[in-house]
Each structure stands twice: as C-alpha cells, then as structure tokens.
Amino acid sequence: MDDQPRRGYGQPSSDNPAAVPVRDDVRPLEHEPAETEPRREPPPFDEPPPRRRSLLRRFLWLVLLAIVIAAIVWWVKHRQQPAGGGRFVNTGPMPVGTATVEKGDMPIVDNELGTVTPLATVTVQTQINGQLVEVGFTEGQMVNKGDFLAQIDPRPYQVALEQAQGQLAKDQAALADAELDLKRYQTLVAQNAIAKQTLDTQVATVAQDKGTVQTDQAQVDAQKLNLVYCHIISPVSGRVGLRQVDPGNYIQTSSTTGIVVVTEVQPISVIFTLPEDSLQAVLDQVHAGQTLKAVALDRTGNKAIETGQLSTIDNQIDTTTGTVKLRATFPNAKLDLFPNQFVNIKLTVDTLKGTNIVPDSAIQRGAPGTFVYLVKSDQTVTAQPVTLGPDDGTKVAVTKGLNPGDVVVTDGADRLKDGAKVAVTEKGAGQGAQQSKQPGQQPSAQHGHGHGQGGGQGQAPGGQAPAGQAPGGLAPAGQAPGGQPAGSSGG
C-alpha cells in the first residue's frame, strides 16, 4: 500500500474513475500558492534600497556644508583679531583729554520735579440771570483786577429798581402822615380830649410804617446791586482764557462752565515734592532766615526758564510717598512759565566752601569703587580712589583723594588701564564737552549725594559704558585698574 501514490481529494481512482466526483468550488489551501501568481525574487544583498541611498546622500551634503561654515567662521575670527590683539595692545601713548582739579565753592542742590501752579485761578460766573449782550475781552488778553469783562441786559433790573423806589416813596409818605397824627394825639391826650388808647395805637402805626419803609429801602438796594452784577468785571489780574459762552445767550446762575477763566500768571508758583530725608536741611536754612534760591528748567533740563525763591513748605508729610510739598514763587516777567507746565526745579540748599572740584566726566566706577585716572609727571596714569561730595550735574566735589592742581582724565578713560602711557591732546576738553551737554542730564535728586554721570569718550548717553566694557571706563572684566583681577564690577 505504501508504494501506491496517494490520491488527492477530487481525483478519481484508477480502479474506479467515477467513485469520487471532482468539485469545482473547492479552493486550494492558503499555504499553497496559486500557480498563476508570479514569484518575486529578493533583491541582491549588495544593492541598498533607493530610499536609503537618498538619505545617505543628504547626510553627506549636510556634513560637508557644516565643515565649510566652520572653516569660514574660523577664518573671519582669526582675520579680525591680529596676533597679540586686544584693547590694550601696546600701540603707543593713548590720546586723552584732561582737566585740572580746582578749588572752589560747590552748591548743594536738590533736583526735583514740579508743576507750574497759578496763585489764583477764577472761573467768572454770572450772579444774576439774563441775556449776555456784550463781551469786553479778547481771548488770551491780559487783564487787571476790575477790568470790564461782560455785560448782561440791565433793563429788567432797571424796571424792578424803579418799582421798588415807587413803593418806597409811597410808604415814606404814609409814615410821615402817621407821625403827624401821632403829634396831634399827644397834644389831645395832654388836654384829656381823647382816650390814651388812641395814642398808643398811633404809636404802633408809626413803628409799623417805619418797618415798611426799611423793607422798601432794602428792595431798592437789592435792585441796585443787580444792576451792578449786570456789569461783570475781572476779580483778579491775569490772563483770560477761551470764551465759554457767546453774546446773545441767556445765562443763569446755575451754569457751571461760567463765562471765562482768569488765571493769575504774574507772579506764578511751582509746586514740587521733596523727600523727607532732605527736609531737615531745608528747614535748617528756613529757620535761620535764609532765602533759598530756586531755578525752574524746562522738561528736558536744557534751558533755565526762570529764577525765583522758596516761599512755602507744606504742614505735613505724605505718608504714602514719604515726601512733602513745597512752593516756589517766580516773577514770570516774560510769561515763560505756563500754568500746569511740567518743569525741573533746582533748589539750592547750601554751599560747600573751598572744596576740590572736577568735571563729572572724570569720575569712573569699578571694582575698587569710585576713582579717577590721575595723570602723573611721567605721562602715565594711575587709578586714584576718591570720595565724592555734592554734584550739580556738571561738576562734582571731591572731599578726599585729590589735591588742587592735579590733572585727571576726562576723555578717553575707556581705553586706559593703570600705568598706561597717555598723550594729552587738549587740556580741559572733557570739562567743556561735559558742560555743553550738561543741561540735558538729570542730576541726582538726593540732597548732598550727587554723583557724576560719566561722559568719557566712547561711552553711551547717561554715563553707561559701551558694550563689552565695564562701567565708567574701567579695565576689562576680570581686571581692576591696577591690573589685579577683580571679583565683581562696581558702580
């Protein structure tokens, strides 16, 4: 039996061909592939797929591009930095501007912000109702106290006055008649011709008529006052503003806008605030009877507008801000100060006599603190620590560290280090440059503790050092002026 071939399902036997019928709907097994499907040959092992070839090519291009960029960066960097480069490469003496320490007086100034405030601002309103028939001013005109401003139609009040005067005359005649009757009754009572009661009644009638006459007189005076109110005059001297109502309109006492606003501008005041820590120095001068000078400058501080004096100190300190209000008055002869204008106030509190003075641009700040570059006789510089006093925005007092006649660097300090060789280009150049730009600076507002604003060559406005430079023109980061490493940058 084993030698006989096995018959598959649906195949007839040779012995009995019709024993098993062949079924057309029987499918071959799934694991047996159909004879009609073509076989796929596997790709050869030595040829990568197309997608892998594309990724590999792209990666190689990226690596090549990165190498090229790195080479360009290296070439540019080494091309811009020559061998032995740096700010302090020895190329000869550094050109600098200098100034000489002078002996003089330094004012102690408080720099504050203030608002121009008129001493009087009056809204002119009508005190009676009526039609506005005339306006006697031009907008922006300067007027004096008592000058004519507007006229209200007086005719209704004139008629009312005449009516009150007529009633007064009538009641005065009645009073005169009652007084004559009183005299007659007094004579008759003396003769016992009439009763005493008649005399008493007549006395009361005379008193009643006198009261009526007084009431009439008050009415007459009231109508005269209304006529005065029809003629509106300026209550103060000053400048009139824009007209709030035009002639022909009916105005009433209930109006809130008024006819015009008159502002007193000569003199005028500036109200500013002062920190409570600086108040005591001001009070000491005021109690000693001193007059403190106040200078008003414009918003930018570039121009002095007016010079005046301190007039009033408020009676309490504002606890929310820790400041107290002060008022300074100014003549305002040229009308340069305008109401509600924002100004800077420089209040001179005291004067420091016989102190050493240098330009603000000479002051440097760094790791050793506040210092200046002092020019020695061998034309080299050394970093000299100093102690500062008051500052007026242009010059600063030096209380310790310098002597009169010393020469300090004012321009070019950002390129220096301790011991550097210098060449003086123009003595005092730094001071002149500082003074030319001083009005635009905002000095320290603390009393007696102002400091210089910088101003050396190459510095940014306001005394800020250029990018990559320590504040105040000090040596590079990590190096003090004396060449010693610094742990931190001061200033």
What is the topology?
Elements: H1 50-80, E1 94-100, E2 102-117, E3 121-124, E4 130-135, E5 142-143, E6 148-152, H2 155-190, H3 196-230, E7 231-233, E8 238-240, E9 250-251, E10 260-263, E11 268-275, H4 276-287, E12 293-297, E13 304-313, E14 323-330, E15 342-359, E16 364-366, E17 369-375, E18 381-385, E19 387-391, E20 395-400, E21 407-411, E22 422-427, H5 429-437
Parallel strand pairs: 1-22
Antiparallel strand pairs: 1-21, 2-11, 2-15, 3-10, 4-6, 4-9, 5-8, 6-7, 8-10, 11-14, 12-13, 12-15, 13-14, 15-20, 16-17, 17-18, 19-20
Helix pairs in contact: 2-3
| CATH fold name of the largest domain | OB fold (Dihydrolipoamide Acetyltransferase, E2P)
Count of helical regions: 5
The topology string of helices and strands comes to HEEEEEEHHEEEEEHEEEEEEEEEEEH
CATH-defined architecture of the largest domain:
Beta Barrel
Spatial order of the strands in the main sheet? 2-11-14-13-12-15
Write down the CATH class of the largest domain. Answer: Mainly Beta
Bulk shape: elongated
C-alpha Rg, in Å? 51 Å
